[in-house]
Amino acid sequence: MTGTEIGTGAGSGASGPSDTGAGSAASILETARLWRDHDPDPDTRARLTELIDAAAGGDPGAVADLGSRFQGPLTFGTAGLRGEVGAGESRMNVAVVTRATAGLARYLGDTVGHDARVVVGCDARHGSDAFFDATTEVLAAQGFTVFALPRRLPTPLTAYATRALDCDAGVMITASHNPPADNGYKVYLGGRATDESGRGVQIISPADADIADRIAQAPAADEVPRDRDAVIDAGDDIVRDYILRTAGLRAGSGACPVRVVLTPLHGVGGTLAREVLRSAGIDDVHTVAAQFAPDPDFPTVAFPNPEEPGALDLALDLARDVRADVVIALDPDADRCSVATPAGDNGWRQLTGDEIGWLLGEQAAQDPTRDGDTLACSVVSSRLLEKIAAHHDLRFAATLTGFKWIARTPGLRFGYEEAIGYCTDPQSVRDKDGIGAMVRVIDLVESLARDGRTLTDALDALARRHGLHATAPMSIRVEDTGRIASMMRRLRTAEIGDLAGSPVVEIVDLASGSGDLPPTDAMVVRTAADDRVIVRPSGTEPKLKCYLEVVLDCPDGAIPHDEAARRLEMLSTDVAALLGV
Fold first, then answer.
1. pLDDT at position 16, please?
2. What is the pLDDT of residue 8?
């Protein structure tokens, strides 16, 4: 079963900007004029002037547009900033990035001192160059040592450089796999700004709230000083170091016989990934030409996410033409990696995020040369990794969703989350790294082929040893975000007798915390058949996300894929009914 997404109507949600009355219109105009007058970017300033003039003339569409742009500051949280590029305080633009950086600078000055070291990188999305300039120049004006990475390079390089350059913070301008209209601002802490477990890891509470408080106190954007001359060009050395380190993840030597098809999905990972592969001796690489160059409009895909249906179509067509051994797809900032493997009769099978995690987890568990004694995954990922760890006498940890939690695991050897994120070299990159995962996957394909085996064979072996674990996501997209809280309340108060025909034996509300997990808005339901459902609101989209898993024995070595698919469908139907959709 593949993931499903269910859409719901807006219901009777709160009034939108189009309902703005005369009094609130006057307030919006006042707010917009004040912001416009302090916006240092002539393009966004001109756009606001157009809207202000039209709204002042009574144009209701302009009033509504301004209302959407000034519905409150763009929220700074554990993912930093992320939103649509455009003019106004509720969008991503130079003014917002300037004030956010001023707040970050004050936080670093207060916690580290004015000798802080910061590294900054950016992708190729709309606005990235201007946001990169604003970030580096504002930080440099505070007297910090600021390293500007070469532009248009992947997020894992910034995470790597935060540790390798012993920086107190790293900033990456990216919106990862968000829609083309978006951009974002991701913050890592390192050096003296955090403890050992958090060096080179994305921020968590209370750092996010402390930075947000200082952003709120920042002056108007045109009053924040900038210093271009004090910014240090990090040069190509740090890039070469990352290439050599990541290429070294291949255990094999000599020319690699694996034929690879690679697509960066119009993102910034293509050139760097090719250089890593070349340095690793992996030369039989075929790239999807139409998707190789960075393009912020992502013209060949409906959504720039390798997990989305159709995103790999061009790569799979090329794989059939060249008779490839594996397909690798990076997301636009190359921190995530999807994999497809041959499936007979010139067919191809795209692996789930959990399946890739199992394979890389087993690979890590079998490798005594790696540092760390712990395998970790997010709590919404499959339970199979825990069994793999136990089989190899390793420790296991389940964390909250996101690499800001996974990467903090003490003694981490390997970590993953089901959303195709993998940390395969924690000593180097304390975050998910699609390029590092790419090398590990190709190395695994190579080593399996020596014994006449494939990735599918390796997955079947894990199923025979530990039981077939089959997982599927189910997302419920809403127009009225209030429905998400309503569905969570409905789940918390429901009397759940059984799911997929099996009695419910455990219900855990993670809002109160559980075991080693801090509180989070999620519910876990488990049945006597060992099926499991986890339901939680998405942290980045208007969705309620459900994670389904079934576990089946493999009698006489037969793998019951059809039965697993049937049970997942039953679970999906029952959960949808339970949530009232």
1. 34
2. 55
Q: 31 Cβ partners below 8 Å, 6+ apart?
A: 70, 89
**Residue 64 and residue 397: Cα distance in Å, rounded?**
48
| Range list of H helices, 231-307 | 237-247, 270-279
d(CA 173, CA 151): 10
pTM: 0.95
Strand partners, 119: 147, 170
**Best CA proximity match to 439, nearest among 418, 422, 461, 463:** 422
Element (H, E) at 12: none
pLDDT for position 561? 96
Do 39 and 151 lie in one domain? The reply is no
Residues of the chain with pLDDT under 70: 1-3, 7-23
Q: What does DSSP say about strands 260-263 and 232-233: parallel, antiparallel, or unpaired?
A: unpaired
Residue closest to 170 by CA, chosen among 226, 263, 234, 125? 234
Helix (H) or strand (E) holding 167: none
* Structural domain containing residue 323: 259-466
CATH number where 405 lies: 3.40.120.10
Nearest residue to 137 via CA among 194, 221, 39: 221
Question: What's the pLDDT at 10?
Answer: 37
Structure tokens at 499: 């799911």
The residue from 219, 235, 251 where one domain ends is 235
- The total number of structural domains in the chain stands at 4
Residues 184 and 128 in one domain: yes
On whether both 292 and 344 belong to a single domain, the answer is yes
Distance CA 497, CA 505 (A): 9
- So which residues are the catalytic ones? 176
Nearest Cα residue to 457 out of 471, 442, 445: 445
